[in-house]
Structure formats: structure tokens, C-alpha cells
Write a structure and sequence with these properties.
The complex is a heterodimer. Chain A is of the alpha/beta class. In chain A, 34% of the residues lie in helices and 28% in strands. Chain B is 77% helix and 0% strand. Classes of the chains: A alpha/beta, B mainly alpha. Chains A and B meet through helix 2 of A and helix 1 and helix 5 of B. Bound molecules: adenosine-5'-diphosphate and magnesium ion (MG).
């Protein structure tokens, strides 16, 4: 286990932002941290990196206090400005030196990262929001630390860059452990092998992504027509709940999977089925934490 | 340990950035100009020096010491108020603080600012050894040490406020207010009320050193416990 959080709690005054949270991160995994706004994701990451001191409990990174493991951690904070007067390369050079590189090496590594993300070496005050985010990501993966923690890395990136970043992160998984928070669940579904779901400061799920999706026992059926009218038709099914959104029906079985039966009923009622697939991470998370 | 290496890296970076800062360059230039003017004036009044009952040291030398005592606290506050508070407020501290220890960051910033602020004065004092009317090096050394600890005491106070108030503007206003109160107390109160009571300690260095260490360590402990949000 590269990270062990043992009953960590963080209070801000009377408000409990993170509540008795315990979880582990496996070395070599890509673990997604999911939860609605205010769930405590950023606070949790702050405690993993030593920036925020837990009110109770402890965090171990590589068996040590985060402060003692700091040379093995790379971190993209959620809202943190860079020095506007310094260039992208100035930042990367300084942080590279703190990572243990000589000045020349640090510059070289910095330049490689600028090239990798097609960034110009300008003062960060003159870069766009998305470009600054990339500088933040570059400093987090600089020198490939053993544990890379990214707080909403793709928020604010254009789709091309978000895709490029995803490819880079998949490359990194061979050498590093990644812990990523994101609201883009389709993206996390492609990246992660583990998920941690939080709500109101508490852990509600820690599971292998595959297992989690199977446990949901849900199927999403997309039609060529609006799905709403089929909800009542499917009400006759036992041990199943049905929801619809636009052209998609999501059916959750509380017992055995009855997908073939569902399809039979739909076809009999002249539904034109375009696709049938396991409910996505997004479907499952919405159902789990955002239910009305 | 990484600590010494990180300290060196951050110290170098802070000094370099200070010399790129227009604010600091302008302040240092004004400060140097005032010291120069002080020396000229001192030389002008030299013929009347014997009336002032001072030991046998040139007035120009006293001018540098006196002006430094007056100007250093203001200079220190204005140069250092955003050093820590600024980075806490914008969040840029996060990038540093997850990479290296709080002590290293605090001490590197402290040492860098102390260097930048005290080097001009020290150069002037040392210049006294080589002036036309040379001053004994032991005298220069004792005044230099005195001013260094004096600057350190105010820098410690400024850093303490910076960590305590976390926002640069607030730190600036409160530091200036504190300075005004200190000066008023200096001239109006019994010595034990005045935060300048070090002046009554013998030797004077001891009191100043206690101040520098006390405020400094308090600031460091606070910084060490601060959540960087
Ligand atoms: N400095 C703070 N003072 C008070 N409350 C805070 C502070 N930082 C975060 N919170 C609260 O803690 C909760 C968790 O915040 P955060 O960890 O940023 O959530 P997330 O990243 O999951 O959106 C939120 O309700 C937020 O308002
Ligand atoms: Mg957040």
C-alpha cells in the first residue's frame, strides 16, 4: 500500500469536512476519487500531501508521514496560482531542483515537459487558464514521483488536451501510482482501476472499478426513440427499478440480472434498440450519490 | 538530508527574485540614497562634532548607524509583508510546501530577506575601516552585529505577523500599526511596557537576540502548524 489513511478527520471550526475516513491506495494503481462538490476530496488530498494537518487520525505515504515522503510525491493542487512574473520553465526548473535534479538537468526536464504539452515558455501571468493548469500538471509529474496526486486535472482543459493528458497518464501508470479526483466520470472510467467515492466527508465506496460496476447490477439500454414511455411498460418487472433520461433507460436489478427479459419486452413493444451495455460509472455514481 | 540542499536552492531563488522585484529595487535605492545623504551631512557637521559629546568616531559613521536604526524597521516591513502571506493568499505556497519542509521554506525566506536588507548597511559600516579617517575594525564589527540583530528582531516580528494574518494587505497594515505603537511606547512608557525594553538590557545584543529568536521561533511554529488551503 503506497497510501494508508487511518481514520482521518478534518474539522474547520465546527464544520467537519472529512469525517473518520479510512482507505488505502495500491502501489501501481490508478485510483479515482469521486464525490459531489464539497464532499471533501480536496481536503483529503491536502492531508495526503502534508499541506493540511488532520484534526484526528493519520496518513502514511510509503509508510511515513507525508512530510517525510515529500520527495516521492507529485501534486496538482486544485486552486493554486503560480507566480505570474515567472515563466513556465522558471517554475519547472525550481521545482526540478527541489526534486533533486541539478540546474541543467532540471532545465532539460522542464523543456521536455513543455514540449510534451506544447506549451510556450512565457510568464505564467500571460498564459490562459488552461495553459496554467498544464504547467501545474507538468510540475506534478516532473521527475515521475512514485505517487502522483491530481486534483481535477482536466477541469478547464480543451478536449484535445484532456485526451492528450489521459494518454500521458496511462503511460505513467507503469512507473507511478496515480490518485485523481475528477467530475468527468467517463474519463475516470477509462483511466482507473480503483474508485473511492466520498459524500459529505465520509467514504461510501472503495472498490475495484470492475467490481463496483458489476455490483451495481445495472444495465443501460439506449433506444432510437425517447425512452420515457417505456418506463411504465417495464414496471411489470419484479425486482427491478427503471429510470429514463432522453433515449436511455437504466434498469437496476435488485436480484438476478434479467436483461434478456427486458429486451424481449422492449422489442415486443416496438422499441428500436441501439445499444445495451453495463451502466457506466457516471450512471452508477449519479444513482448512488445524486439521487433525489 | 535534503534540508540543507533545499535551503540553498530556495535561498538562492528568493534572493534572485528579490533583485527582479521593482518594489525591492526602488526601496533599496531610496535607502542607499538616504544613507549617502547622511554621510555627506555627517561630514558637513564634523567640525562641530566635539560639542556632541560622542566618542572619537566620525559623525558620518554615526549617521549611517542612526539612519539604519530609524529606517530598517520600515524597510523590513515593506519588503517582507508579502513574503509568506502573499504566497499563502495566492496558493503558490502549496507548490513549495508539498515538496520541502516548512522549516526550510521559512528559514530560506528569512535568511534571503535578512541578507538583502542588511547588506547595504553592512557595506557602509565596513567602508568605515577604509575611510580617510579609519574606524577600528572591532568597533565596526560590534555596530554591524548590533544592526544585524536589530534587523533580525524586526524581520522575525514581520514574519510572525505574516503567518498570523495570512493576507498580505492585512499583514502590512498591522505591522505598520505595531511599529507606530512600539515607537510611541518607546518614548512614553516605563521600559517594561515598551517592546523596546531590550534597550535596557545589558548587553543590548542579548535583548535583541532574544526578540529575534522569540518572534522567529513563534512564527516558525505557527507556520509549521498552519493548514495551507
Ligand atoms: N478553509 C475552510 N474553512 C471552512 N470550510 C472549508 C474550508 N475548506 C473547505 N471547507 C469545506 O469543507 C468541505 C469540503 O471541501 P473540499 O474538500 O474542497 O470538497 P471537494 O474538493 O470534494 O469539492 C466543503 O463543504 C467546504 O465548504
Ligand atoms: Mg475540490
Amino acid at each position: 500500500m503506497i497510501v494508508e489513511a487511518r481514520s482521518i478527520t478534518k474539522r474547520f471550526g465546527k464544520f467537519t469536512a472529512v469525517d473518520n475516513l479510512s482507505f488505502t491506495i495500491k502501489e501501481g494503481s490508478i485510483t479515482g476519487l469521486i464525490g459531489p462538490n464539497g464532499a471533501g476530496k480536496t481536503t483529503t488530498m491536502g492531508m495526503l500531501t502534508g499541506l493540511i494537518k488532520p484534526s484526528a487520525g493519520e496518513v502514511l505515504v510509503l509508510g511515513k508521514k507525508p512530510e517525510a515522503a515529500n520527495k516521492d510525491i507529485g501534486f496538482l493542487p486544485q486552486d493554486a496560482q503560480l507566480h505570474p512574473q515567472r515563466t513556465a520553465l522558471d517554475h519547472l526548473t525550481l521545482y526540478g531542483k527541489l526534486k533533486g535534479y541539478t540546474k541543467t538537468e532540471a532545465k532539460e526536464e522542464g523543456k521536455k515537459l513543455l514540449q510534451l504539452f506544447k506549451l510556450q515558455d512565457r510568464k505564467t501571468g500571460q498564459l490562459s487558464h488552461g495553459q496554467r493548469k498544464i504547467v501545474g500538471i507538468a510540475q506534478a509529474i516532473l521527475g515521475t514521483p512514485r505517487l502522483i496526486i491530481l486534483d481535477e486535472p482536466t477541469a478547464g482543459l480543451d478536449p484535445g488536451m484532456a485526451h492528450h493528458l489521459k494518454q500521458q497518464l496511462l503511460q505513467l501508470r507503469k512507473k507511478a501510482t496515480l490518485f485523481i479526483s475528477s467530475h468527468n466520470l467517463a474519463e475516470l472510467e477509462q483511466l482507473c482501476d480503483e474508485v473511492i467515492i466520498m459524500q459529505e466527508g465520509k467514504l461510501i465506496v472503495q472498490e475495484k472499478l470492475k467490481t463496483f460496476l458489476q455490483q451495481q447490477n445495472s444495465v443501460a439500454i439506449t433506444l432510437e426513440q425517447a425512452a420515457g414511455s417505456f418506463v411504465s411498460i417495464l414496471k411489470t418487472l419484479k425486482d427491478a427499478t427503471v429510470a429514463s433520461e432522453a433515449n436511455t433507460l437504466t434498469i437496476t436489478f435488485s436480484d438476478k440480472d434479467k436483461t434478456p427479459e427486458v429486451i424481449a419486452i422492449l422489442v415486443k413493444n416496438k422499441a428500436r434498440i441501439r445499444s445495451v451495455h453495463q451502466a457506466s460509472l457516471e450512471d452508477s455514481v449519479v444513482k448512488l450519490v445524486h439521487k433525489p | 538530508m535534503h534540508t540543507m540542499r533545499d535551503f540553498g536552492i530556495l535561498y538562492g531563488d528568493e534572493v534572485k527574485q528579490a533583485f527582479k522585484s521593482k518594489k525591492i529595487i526602488v526601496l533599496l535605492a531610496v535607502y542607499l540614497a538616504v544613507l549617502f545623504a547622511g554621510i555627506k551631512l555627517g561630514n558637513l557637521f564634523e567640525p562641530f562634532g566635539s560639542y556632541l559629546a560622542l566618542p572619537e568616531l566620525p559623525l558620518a559613521f554615526y549617521a549611517v548607524v542612526l539612519l539604519s536604526l530609524i529606517l530598517l524597521p520600515i524597510l523590513i516591513i515593506v519588503v517582507s509583508y508579502d513574503s509568506i502571506a502573499g504566497e499563502l493568499a495566492t496558493g503558490s505556497m502549496k507548490y513549495l510546501a508539498y515538496r520541502t519542509s516548512r522549516q526550510t521554506i521559512f528559514l530560506a525566506k528569512y535568511a534571503a530577506l535578512l541578507t538583502i536588507i542588511s547588506v547595504p548597511t553592512l557595506l557602509f559600516l565596513v567602508g568605515g575601516i577604509f575611510s580617510a579617517d579609519p574606524i577600528p575594525w572591532i568597533t565596526v564589527l560590534s555596530y554591524a552585529l548590533y544592526l544585524l540583530v536589530y534587523a533580525a528582531a524586526f524581520l522575525s516580528l514581520a514574519f510572525l505577523f505574516s503567518v498570523l494574518f495570512k493576507k498580505p494587505q492585512r499583514t502590512l497594515y498591522i505591522s505598520l500599526l505595531a511599529l507606530i505603537i512600539l515607537v510611541i511606547l518607546r518614548f512614553t512608557s516605563p521600559y517594561y511596557l515598551s517592546l523596546f525594553w531590550y534597550a535596557h538590557l545589558t548587553p543590548v545584543y542579548l535583548g535583541l537576540t532574544l526578540f529575534a529568536l522569540g518572534y522567529g521561533i513563534l512564527g516558525l511554529i505557527l507556520f509549521w502548524r498552519t493548514d495551507i488551503l
